[in-house]
Amino acid sequence: MARLKVGICGYGGLGRVHAGTLVGMDDADIVAVCDINPKKLLPVEIKFNIEQSGPVFDIRKCRTYTDFRKMLKKEKLDAVVTALPTNVHAKIAIMAMKEGISVFSEKPMALNVRECDKMIKARDDNNVQLQIGQCLRFWPDYEMLKKAITEKTYGDLKSLTMTRIGGYCTWGDPDWFNDGKLSGGAILDLHLHDVDWVQHALGLPKSLIAAGSRGQTGAIDDVTAVWQYDDFIVTIRGSWMYQTFSMSFQAFFENASMDYGMHPDTALRIKGKGDKDFTKIELPSKENGYCREIRYFLDCVSGKIKNTVCTAESTKESVGLVMLENKSISKQKWMKLGNFN
Ligand SMILES: NC(=O)c1ccc[n+]([C@@H]2O[C@H](COP(=O)([O-])OP(=O)(O)OC[C@H]3O[C@@H](n4cnc5c(N)ncnc54)[C@H](O)[C@@H]3O)[C@@H](O)[C@H]2O)c1
Fold first, then answer.
1. What is the mean pLDDT of residues 141-154?
2. How would you classify the pairing of strands 28-34 and 63-65?
């Protein structure tokens, strides 16, 4: 099978992470990179929140563009990986899909459900793949938690707490993260990761309630949500008001406690009833979620597999759930789950 020709749009923080991942793939080549800021296309390093390990892409090895439309016209691409400010996710993804090109677009899918619907329509009209970068679905530690819940390895789940906290983003270019109208605030940009994972792993709750406070973005930048299921609750905490990034969870099972991110080495651990201490759990994969989600996307583009893990329909539901939490915060009420359209 011919190697896939991939273009990248948005060469800031995450664009570079995905470029590094693609370098390690044996069936794809980065043939072009686009960024509206020509400085981003220079072969220099930039500082942002994710530590990059593994290969780094040498941008001198591909063609570069400052105009996405031009890149689509000149290159014969099979797929585009986009890592852009959230307010342009839908526009750029739809532009590519209309040219018959499959799209991997960073999370959040879009600023609202209406834009998500337009993206899904463009995918269907043009018979291409659309996958959103909800990387937690591919994170090995979180996959192990999902397996333990589904298979009831430690008995029934009784309660789950998910936390994702960090400081305000300083690397956005221009400073779009700190404008709630462009990023949606921490509730949509950061907290969404756990919202997405919980609905992916556990399905939709019966109802939810959230409380939060507005921060410097003008949107909700600190949120605590409680989701009610039939037999357990999930508490999800997210904030941009902390000084250090940290992600963690604690799962309370009938016969054991599982935690991740609580110890300095962050490893996934389990402590069964009667155990003296927590022990580390061996993970099935050494690769992180960024790498595994791009591998999955490429396999969908080349037709090796059908996307069942990260469908656009389900990532749209996550945007809908965040919007419902926003409503709960302003109404100070429990919200019943309905249709997100
Ligand atoms: N999955 C994760 O863990 C994770 C982590 C960080 C960021 N993200 C997401 O990735 C996306 C990008 O974040 P980032 O940190 O890379 O931001 P960034 O500001 O570092 O990079 C965005 C880049 O897009 C460029 N750009 C803006 N508009 C453009 C356009 N119309 N055409 C071409 N280029 C354009 C900017 O010049 C900039 O270089 C966001 O949606 C963010 O939420 C995901």
1. 97
2. parallel
Using the atom order of ligand 1, give the atom closest to the CA of residue 92. 31
- Please tell me the predicted confidence (pLDDT) of residue 258: 97
Residue 118 main-chain phi, psi, to 5 deg:
-65, -35
Homologous superfamily of the 4-135+291-310 domain (CATH): NAD(P)-binding Rossmann-like Domain (3.40.50.720)
Answer CATH for 137-286+319-336 from 1.10.3720.10, 3.40.1550.10, 3.10.20.30, 3.30.360.10: 3.30.360.10
| Protein residue with least CA distance to atom 14, ligand 1 | 13
Token readout for 180 is 């709630």
Backbone angles phi, psi at 180, to 5 degrees: -55, -25
**Alpha carbon distance 138, 28 (integer Å):** 20
Q: In the chain, where does the domain assigned CATH 3.40.50.720 lie?
A: 4-135+291-310
pLDDT value at 330 more than 80 = yes
CA of 180 to the centre of ligand 1 (A): 15
DSSP 231: S
Distance CA 93, CA 270 (A): 41
Four-residue CA torsion sign, 242, 243, 247, 252: negative
Confidence of residue 1 (pLDDT cuts 50, 70, 90): low
- Amino acid present at 106: E
